[in-house]
Amino acid sequence: MKNIKKIACLFLVTCMFQVVATAQESLAFKSGEKLTFTASYEMSGFMTQLAQVSMETSEVKTSNNTLLHFKCRANTFTKFDAFFKIRDVYESYVSKYSLLPLLYKRDIQEGGYKKKMKYVYNQKSKTVKSTQTKRRGNGTDWVQDKNFSISNDAMDVISTLYNLRNLPIDNAKVGDTKTFKVLFDREETSITIKYVGKETVNAGNLGRKECYKLQVLTSGDFLKSGTLWLTADANKVPVQARFTIPIGSGTLQLTNASGLAN
């Protein structure tokens, strides 16, 4: 049961199962877009709906730049809060024009466990200033600062997701693969994506939609397998994800999408 808290993180991983090509001119998303999902986990042989995951896009203007703010929340349903309460928030601020991240924040509260992570990017030097804050058992905080270098194509999980949504998967051929790097807990993780083909699946309030089907290939110990379905249109909305980990399996299903760009 303690592994239920991994659902939110798995969502962020499986949503990145997209094929990388050259960027298209128009964005697949815009300020005002909101996606809502139901997260289910296999318990005693049955899939049980445990949590809601939402993703929102907004625009933020600074003195010298225009940023897109991506915000993802994961909350267990009230009836499961007494069992294991999850209140996780992931945020990324990216340039509206380059889509490169400038700031990333992660605030997780899972049961009695609390942790915060902050990345401040320097895209010119390809370095990150990070601050990690953990809550000790006695209620005090332990803060640790660390600077590290990143690869040219490495981004946090949220900015990676939206960058990948904006790529023209329609140019990919069945069997095409692409390996990319994702920053998580100050480490770069390599993930290879394979384009499987198209399939029509349930897409919540969007009805049944033809989707790109993508598969993850990884040698990591945590995620054994995963598949993601994205609408085969200009929005590339993630509508369904399935994953398997050493202790079980789960799904994410889109229930509502609004404010779409196209």
Explain how this protein is built.
The chain has 262 residues and is mostly beta strands. It has one domain. Helices cover 8% and strands 56% of the residues. The protein contains three helices and 15 strands. It has helices at 6-14, 78-81, 157-165, and strands at 34-43, 46-61, 66-76, 87-95, 101-110, 113-122, 127-135, 141-149, 155-156, 177-184, 187-202, 208-217, 225-231, 238-245, 248-258. Strands 8-7-6-5-4-3-2-1-15-14-13-12-11-10-9 form a 15-stranded mixed β-sheet. Strand 10 (177-184) and strand 11 form a beta hairpin. The radius of gyration is 18 Å and the shape is globular. Residues 1-24 have low confidence and may be disordered. This is DUF3108 domain-containing protein. Keywords: Signal. Residues 1-21 form the signal peptide. It comes from Kordia antarctica. Pfam families: DUF3108.
Biggest β-sheet: count, sense, barrel?
Answer: 15 strands, mixed
Oligomer: single chain
Strand content: over 45%
Question: Largest beta sheet: what is the strand line-up?
Answer: 8-7-6-5-4-3-2-1-15-14-13-12-11-10-9
Please bin the fraction of helical residues: under 10%
N-to-C SSE series?
HEEEHEEEEEEHEEEEEE
Principal-axes shape call: globular
- The unreliable regions are 1-24
Please state the average pLDDT score. Answer: 86
Distance separating the two termini:
40 Å
Radius of gyration, rounded?
A: 18 Å
Q: Any idea how many domains? A: 1
Total strand count, please? 15
Structural class of the secondary structure composition? mainly beta
Number of helices: 3
Signal peptide: 1-21
InterPro entries: DUF3108 (IPR021457)
Keywords: Signal
Protein name: DUF3108 domain-containing protein
